[in-house]
Amino acid sequence: MASSPSTSPRPQHTPNTAFRALRGHLSPGEFAANVRRSAREIGEQVSCDARYIGRVEAGEIRCPNYAYERVFLHMFPGYSLTDMGFAPRETVRGRAARTRGARMENDAPPPTTKRRGKTPLTPLPPLTDHPDSPGLIAFPDCHEYDEESDVLRRAFMTGGPAALAAASVGGATPTARAAGRPAPATGRLRAGSSDADAVEQAVRHIRLLDDRHGGALLYHRAAASLRAAYELLDAGTSRQTVADRLHAGAGELAISVGWLAHDSGRYDDARSHYAEALATARVAADPALEAHAFCNTSFLARDAGRPREAVRAAQAGQLAARHLGSPHLMSLLALREAGGWAGLGDRTGCKQALARAHRLFARGSTAQDPEWMSFFGEAELEGLEAQCWSALRDWKRAAHHAERAVQLQKPHFTRNQALFTAELAGDLAAQGEAAGAAEAAARALDFLGPVRSGRINTMLRTAAGRLRPFRREPAVASFLSRQAATA
Question: Burial, 446: exposed, middle or buried (Cβ in 10 Å; 0-12, 13-18, 19+)?
Answer without folding.
Answer: middle
